[in-house]
Amino acid sequence: MQLSGLLARGSGFFRIALLYKGLFIVSLLLITSFCDVYSQGNLLILPRRVVFEGALKSQDLTLANTGNDTAKYLISLVQMKMKDDGSFEQITTPDEGQFFADKYLRFYPRSVTLAPKKSQIVKMQFLKSPKMEPGEYRSHIYFRAEPRARPLGEKETDVDSTAVTTKLVPIFGITIPVIIRTGESNTTTTLTDLSFEMIKDTVPTLKLTFNRSGNFSVFGDIVVKHISNQGKETKVASVKGIAVYTPNVIRRFQCNLEAVPGIDYKSGKLRVVFSTPVDTKTQKLAEADLQL
Predict the structure, then answer these.
(1) Engineering a disulfide at 119: which of 23, 64, 231, 290 sits with its beta carbon 3.0 to 4.6 angstroms away?
(2) Structural domains of the chain in order of their starting residue, each with its CATH number
(3) Sign of CA dihedral 97, 103, 109, 113
């Protein structure tokens, strides 16, 4: 019997174990979209991504246990690809135009044990090599929760050796991207394919496509405003932490809009602004309008 697969959905890792007559265990690892998710289970991580550029050679990550139990996390580097819908898939070989960052990175410690409501620093270092070509390198640092040990004295539940028993052991994990940038950026972004629909006649929804070109990834926030025929502007949506990672050139995206009293989604237009914070300012990356 063999069970294998890969699925991008949700925001945590889960291992499903099958015990057959006590002889073997087969696991299915579900790898999920966690690039823009910063907490899973009781683990909170700041910042949400690490970027090495310019003269920056080290950065600190803060891990915090927001739960009521002590938790241990094992730390490693993994390689991920982004799909057009924004979900992620683990890979071992880079796609064309993709470069892994792991061989230029060091981090410590390799595991952390956090008491309830406590935090700890994980240090990351960039080891620059003269052989690095200009461009962007990316790997993901993975924090995997170690399953809690069975309490001392607790006995294993008897298993019927003539039947198949399913045992679910949730293993929570979270990853964040670690990016190295060398050289100058020639990246541009546009927003296209804007469309509006009313889902089930009650939920106003906007769909659009991010188009990225150039040598670096883009990430930022979008704000959607409704502009009435009289020129009145009303913010109807705000989404933070949207990314399009190299080598992807598009990302399809949709978000629900607020059903604000007085807003008529049958008239006026929607204005979408995609921007990113730079120091203390905000840099606009792209803007597009949709006539309703």
Answers:
(1) 64
(2) 14-182 (2.60.40.10), 188-291 (2.60.40.10)
(3) positive
Which residue(s) pair with 256 in the sheet?
205
**Amino acid identity of 34?**
F
Quote the CA–CA distance of 35 and 240 in Å, as a whole number. Answer: 12
User: Which SS3 state, helix, strand or coil, does residue 104 take?
Assistant: helix
pTM of the model: 0.79
Look up residue 78 and give its two tokens: 């993994």
The CA distance from 22 to 159, in Å, is: 8
Task: Going residue by residue through the chain, which has 292 residues, state the pLDDT in tens, using 9 for 90 and above.
Answer: 332 333 333 333 333 333 333 333 333 333 333 333 344 568 999 999 999 999 999 999 999 999 999 999 999 999 999 999 999 999 999 999 999 999 999 999 999 999 999 999 999 999 999 889 999 999 999 999 887 665 555 555 555 556 665 555 566 788 999 999 999 999 999 999 999 999 888 899 999 999 999 999 999 999 999 999 999 999 999 999 999 999 999 999 999 999 888 899 999 999 999 999 887 788 999 999 999 9
Residues 6+ apart with CB under 8 A from 167: 17, 18, 19
Note the Cα 121 to chain centre separation in Å. Answer: 20
Please tell me whether residue 102 adopts helix, strand or coil conformation.
helix
Query: Residues in the chain, how many?
Result: 292
What whole-number distance in Å separates Cα of residue 189 and Cα of residue 154? 57
Single out the residue of 194, 198, 204, 189 nearest to residue 237, CA to CA: 204
Q: What's the gap between Cα 177 and its chain centre?
A: 8
Alpha-carbon distance of 256 to 265, in angstroms, equals: 13
Q: What are the tokens at 169?
A: 């052991």
